[in-house]
Specification:
By secondary structure, the protein is mostly beta strands. Helix content is about 15%, strand content about 40%. It has a five-stranded mixed barrel with strand order 2-3-4-6-5.
Length: about 200
């Protein structure tokens, strides 16, 4: 069974295998900033097994803002391996993370933990980790007349992607689990909030 999680858009890797997978696939990791080297202008980030990722401060990026990242999670993409224990990475913007998520979703993708952020008469809008998904009332379990009969604000739902509109940056969803692909083709996402 093929499985991939959106934690690649901000997952904290548990093993170096997770790091190598994200590096090869272009996935985004969430790493904790350990300390900032002002002389080298590099932020040191924690990787599993005592290894570190190095995030250089770019020209025009304020030192105070960069230094304030220490102790927080930073979304990065691995660019290269510097040595046996160190990797070079680049910071990923929230916009880029949303773009990666949008292009990685396809019809049949199971999305776990989508959050209801608003409701209208014809359906509910769900946060899929920075992009919007529409769950129409006709796609809800039990076919309610109004979405409030089945869901509430901030509910976490498991839904299936029915259609992706790249131009509108909107994902159409269903709770009909029969729309899912076969288990061996399944692509599962576990959503986490994006960290910029």
């Amino acid at each position: 069974m093929k499985s991939y999680t959106v934690e690649a858009i901000g997952t904290v890797p548990e093993t170096m295998g997770d790091v190598f997978l994200a590096w090869r696939s272009g996935g985004i990791l969430r790493l904790t900033a350990l300390w900032y080297d002002a002389e080298e202008r590099i932020l040191h980030l924690a990787l599993p097994e005592g290894r570190t990722a190095l995030l250089p401060r770019e020209e025009g990026e304020g030192e105070y803002a960069f230094r304030s990242l220490v102790g927080t999670d930073v979304s990065v993409r691995i660019k290269d391996q510097c040595s046996e224990t160190q990797f070079l990475c680049e910071k990923q913007s929230v916009t880029r993370q949303r773009e990666v998520l949008l292009y990685s979703l396809s019809p049949g993708t199971l999305v776990k933990g989508a959050t209801v952020v608003s409701m209208v008469g014809y359906g509910a809008f769900l946060d899929l980790g920075g992009i919007m998904g529409l769950l129409h009332v006709k796609e809800m379990e039990g076919l309610p007349k109004h979405p409030s009969e089945k869901v509430a604000f901030l509910d976490k739902l498991d839904v299936v992607v029915k259609k992706v509109d790249l131009q509108a940056k909107l994902v159409y969803l269903t709770q009909n689990m029969e729309c899912r692909p076969s288990v061996k083709d399944q692509l599962t996402f576990t959503l986490q909030r994006l960290v910029g």
